[in-house]
Amino acid sequence: MLERFIEWLLHGLLDLGYPGIILLMAMESSVLPVPAELVMPPAGYWVAKGEMNAVAAVASGVLGSVLGALATYYVAHWFGRGFVRRFGKYFLISERSIERSERYFAAHGEISVLLGRMVPVVRHLISIPAGIARMSLPAFVGYTGLGALVWCSILTWIGYFLGHNEGVLRNAEVQRYVTRALLVVLPILALVAGIYVLRHRRRARSSRGG
């Protein structure tokens, strides 16, 4: 089934063009189940074939990601925790995940948005505590866009690599390279998070000492 969906996206994305990337990535960045791993690699494939521009494709992916994240942000911002608790279950958002996200976000909002945009599953949820906590909108957009830029670029490169070297785009190959990318990205994110935590604790100790 995924192979057929990839094939549909591969040909349909060329017809939909950059607006199609924006729309699909906006859906992906919200709580709707459209994985970026099925959108940006086909865009990279068409970049390899000379049918799309790499910068425009990535920019469309980032714009879509920001728009989708903003939609979720504003729902959480306007309706708050009560709305999410009542309707989140329909989008596979559990009460436990909401509480865990809120506790963490209260202390580490900006770094959470930045790193969360590059972590599967987390990137679909991170806008909810941001909205409930009423995070600064410029900061939310900036960190969301930066995280999306990194991940969209990686996924586009995977599609480009497969289109340029293999000539075809298969879901199994895409997932294999996505897994490899995550094996590199996740430790880097863990290192960045670790450095952030250490600096945060040092600042906290300095404040108490002062």
Could you characterize the architecture of this molecule?
There is one protein chain. With about 210 residues, the chain is an all-alpha fold. The chain has one domain (about 1-210). Helix content is about 80%, strand content about 0%. α1 packs across α3, α2 (about 40-50) packs antiparallel against α3 (about 55-85) and α4 (about 95-115) packs across α7. The longest helix has about 40 residues, at about 170-210. The protein is globular, with a radius of gyration of 18 Å.
Order of helix and strand elements from N to C terminus: HHHHHHHH
Q: In percent, how much strand structure appears in the residues?
A: under 5%
Q: For the report, how would you describe the main beta sheet?
A: none
Shape designation: globular
Mean pLDDT: 81
Total separate domains: 1
Rg from alpha-carbon coordinates: 18 Å
Helical amount among residues, as a percent range? over 70%
- Total strand count, please? 0
Low-confidence stretches: none
Count of individual helical segments? 8
Alpha-carbon distance between the two ends: 61 Å
> What would you call the structural class?
mainly alpha
